Structure formats: structure tokens, C-alpha cells
Amino acid sequence: MVHPIQEANENSPYGDLTREEFYKKHQILHQENFILNKQDLKIFTQSWRPAGTAASRLRGLVAIVHGFNCESSWLFELTAVAIAKAGFVVCALDLQGHGYSDGLPGHVPSIRPVVEDCIWVFDSARAEHPKLPAFLFGESLGGAIAILVCLKQRREWSGLIVSGAMCGVSTKVKPVWPLEELLPVAAFFAPTWKIVITKPPASKSYKEEWKRKLAGKSPNRPKCGKPTAATALEFLRVCENIKRNCQGLETPLLVVHGGEDRVCDPNSAKLVYETAASRLIFMKVIITIALP
Question: Serine aminopeptidase S33 domain: which residues (predicted)?
Fold first, then answer.
């Protein structure tokens, strides 16, 4: 099956089609909704499923979690469509401060309410399909969140897939010294200050120039992709939390990571792979070789 990214161009994930034409071509039913979370924030949710005869032969449910400064629409929804075309119900949400959800753009001072939002949305989706096996897929920050969800719901998921998971932050995007040591102070006195790092993570997230341009043209893309001081500190804490507790990960696990990832550290993902208690566990490191 060809991934729908093959139809995209630098201006639109749907290529030369409208969004409605794109879904019709791929025979996908799509729904959008807003929910109000415990903090009275509106959280955007959406789902995809196959239309036509494939709708009566569903293979499972896949809950997907996007990365930092991304969203469940635009580029990420192409993966949702690919999974739905394979016969799965797919559900997603925009994390707080991302996409169409409420919250200060790109500001994640605490991961706990974000994880709670995911569990609430995904539990609701699973309740609608109690007989289907349920899988969790996360990319980058979403991979870290997916791991945290599975650590809280240890035996409730049939499988966990993480791609480029943020189990550790690359030194190439960490705050410059001595700022990293001063992060707790900066996060306390100026939590929303945009931290000084080499470049916004998005600048290193896409190897192909046209994909970087496409990602930047999302109507929900924040103008400044740099994390706030409180966000940067929380991300480092999340990575340490995962390293300390990944031995409690019992869900069948597939780890996929780019060997040249310059944002999320591949060696930290390897540590999760080597330490997790899952009986079924696989890791695929992708190395890109430049041809002369």
C-alpha cells in the first residue's frame, strides 16, 4: 500500500485535491469534534475509518498521538488515512496548545494533563469498539506520551508503536550551556519565555526540503517553533521519567527510529527497547545513505 504522502506537494498534503476530494478518493469517512477537558479547555478530536465494504471488516482501532508543534491534521493525518485504508478505525486529538485545541501555542508546562486528555479520548473511542484490538501509535513527543499512557494502562493495549520517540533529547537541540542548568530557574520566573536553542526542532525534523515547506504552511503552525522554558524543562523530565520507568512497559512494542535523528536521541529509544518488559518487542533503526 502506497502512503498518501506520495500525493502531497509543498503546498498541500492533499496534492491538487481539496480535503473532501482527497477523502472521497481514498474512501475514508472522517469526523471532527470538540470536547471540554477537566481544565475547561476545548480539545479538538477527530477520527477516520474505511468506507464502503471495508467498513464491515474492521481489523482494529489505532489511537495516534502527534509531536511537538504539530497537530493531528495536515501532514500527520496522512498517516491516519494510510492506517484507516488498511482497515482500522483511527482516532486522534490535538494536544493542549496545538492545532485547534485551546492552550498557549506550544506550551506544555506539565505532561500529566496532556496524558490525561489522551487517555480520556482514547478510552471513549475504545468503548465504542469494545471487540476490536486497540493499538497506540506515537511520533516524537507523541511517542513519549504513548509510552506514558501504556505505563499507566499496562495491559489495556494490544500493541504500542513509537516512531522517533522523544525518549531523550539530542544535544543538537538542547539549550546551550549554561542555560540547561538554569532551566528550573527560568521555568519558575519566566515559564512562557521562548528558550534559546540552536534552531526550532521543526527545522531538523524533516530531511526533505519540500516537507519542511509543507509543514510550515499548515494554518495552525506556530510562527515560533521554539519551546518555552517550562516546556523545555518538562520535556527533559519526561525523558528521565521514561528512562527510569520503561522496565515497567509490558505492552507489545515496536520501536522505529531514524539513525540520524537530530531532535530525539536514537540511543535513548534503544534503551527503552532494551529495558522494556514487553514479551514481544522489535526495533528498527533506519539509516539513510546519500548516493553520490
Answer: 58-284
